[in-house]
Each structure stands twice: as C-alpha cells, then as structure tokens.
Amino acid sequence: MIKELSYILAVAQTGNVSKAAESLYISQPSLSRYIRDLEARLGVQLFQRINNRFVLTYAGEKYVETSKQILALYENLERDLKDIDDAMTGRLKVGCALVRMSYNIPPILKAFIDKFPKVDLQLFENYTTKGLEDMLLNGEIDLAIINQSNSPKLSYIPFFSEELLLIVPPTQPIAVKGRRRPECVYPWIDLRLLSGQPYIRLNGEQAIAIKVNRIFQEKGITPSTILMVKSIESAFRLAEAGLGCAIVPESLLSIPSVETPPKIFSFGDPLTTWTLSIAYREGTELSNVAIEFIRLVKQRYETMKGPGT
User: Fold this and answer.
1) CA-closest candidate to residue 201, choices 185, 174, 223
2) How far apart are the first and last CA of the chain?
3) By CB atoms within 10 Å of each CB, which of 18, 132, 171, 279 scores lowest?
4) Which residues touch 106 (CB under 8 Å, ≥6 apart)?
C-alpha cells in the first residue's frame, strides 16, 4: 500500500514516467504497467497523457491529496515506534513468584521506574514456575523471573544461583546432627535423617517442590508431613515457629521473624542449588525496555553475596 502511494506521487511530481521510474529505482515499463493495473482496479483514470506528460485527473488529484495524508500518518507512526524503542517508553509485563515479589523485586522495580518513568511496567504474580511459563506461552507477560527449567518453547537467561537449605526447629532431634565441612557456609547434614521427621511440604507445582520431591524419591526419604502449604515463605515461617522442617532457598533467610532462629543446614553432595533465570518466549526479539530490565535484575542479584542474602 505505501509503495503504491509512493509510485503515484512520484509520477505526479515529475509528470514523467521515465523520471519517476528512475527516482524509484524501477524500470519504466514496470511503472507504466503498475499505473495501468491500478487504474483498472480502481475503475478510474488517475492521469491524462498529454504530450508525453502525465497530468492528474480530478480523481488523481483526490488520490494524491489523500495519499499525502496517509504517508504523513505513516511517517508519524514510524517515528512514534522509533521513540518507543529509543526513548525507553512503552509497556513491559513481568511475572514473578509471590515470595520474590515480597522481598527481592521491589528494589528492582523502584530502580527501573525511577530511571524510566515513561515505561508502563506491569507486574503479574503466580505461585508456580509452570504457572509463569504458561503465562509466557499465552502471551500474558513478556518476561518471567523463575527457576530455570527446560521448556523447549522458552529461552532462559540465568542470572543467580543460590543454595537450598534445610530449616530445622531447634527442638527436633536432628537439629544437633550437622557437621562442619570446609566447602559449606552452614553445617552439613545427611538429608536421609529427615525420614520420619515432621516436615512442612509444598503442594502444587512449585519448582522447588518438584526438585525436592525428586531428591526424596532418589534417596528414599519419607518425612512425616505435618502441613501442606502453597508458599515457600509460609513453609519457612512455619519451620521458624517450630512446627516442622522445611527446605527453602537461602535468600529467604534475609527475612527472619523470630527471636530464636531455627537451625540451618546445607545438604547434598555436591551441595543442592537452584538457578534463577529470566525467561521469555523462544524467538522473541527483546526490546530495549526488556533488555534494561534484565540488566537491573542482574545488577540487583550480583549484590546478593554470602549467607542471609
């Protein structure tokens, strides 16, 4: 459509098909044929042929007048789209787990909004990695901060790895079973000691629940489930309160809530970790807005070093 308008305007400005074709970098026969076909399709004559000159008819004048308006609108659209990319405006929809929204994401959001106030940043929460992956695949969000999995339809940018830790109330017998290892920040414990112990289990499809259940199956560990919860933070709080053991990521230790903290143990050989990633739909070309958000996420997590972060 835009090409069609440009062709007619070029002929109208030069009054000559050969000169118009030269300016358009096409052959004169091709342009002449294009005009004939367009006039036949529209059912009106756009040009009168007078002494080798192409002069606009009344219909041609109306066509050119409207064409100029359409081209001006198109140029404005292209400029606006370029401004969205260059001036960091537009919209970005980001999904994350509820627990991360409560303590790690707010500083990232503040830094992003302060730097790019014209971006419409929208946050979406979900309990599970699968839920966030489904939102990505359905086009509901642009990016998701999740534990890295292996969905073939998604791309992942890993940015942070952290240890999974066993939280044990100090009154439970296994609370004294840990031992020091040079590679461990926390005392190490044989996770098989968890069999038969009170345990706060995650229900649903959380990535950490899937990973922990796989470990239990591989090692034949059968703890005594006391409660089932959806939230990792809820499991942590209940373990703090002494109701049972729980397995949580290390970053949760930054939000203690009791005066007498539970015992904290590393486990696994090698130590058990998981990797956080930013996921997006496979084949998506990331906008400058998305790239800048990813940079801020990486920057935030690079400062989270050592225990209790």
Assistant:
1) 223
2) 57
3) 171
4) none
Distance CA 76, CA 85 (A): 14
pTM: 0.63
Alpha carbon distance 31, 54 (integer Å) = 13
pLDDT in tens, 225-278: 899 998 888 899 999 999 999 999 888 887 666 778 899 999 999 999 988 899
Residue 154 is encoded by which pair of tokens?
């998604």
Residue 305 has pLDDT above 60, yes or no: no
Band of pLDDT at residue 306, cut at 50, 70 and 90 = very low
How far apart, in whole angstroms, are the C-alpha atoms of residue 253 and residue 101? Answer: 15
What's 268's DSSP letter? T
All structural domains of the chain, each given as residue ranges with its CATH number in brackets, are: 2-86 (1.10.10.10), 90-159+275-302 (3.40.190.10), 163-273 (3.40.190.290)
Both tokens of 65, joined, read: 């007048």
pLDDT over 90 (residue 193): yes
Residue 223: is the preceding peptide bond cis (ω within 30°)? no
> Which of the 8 DSSP states describes residue 184?
-
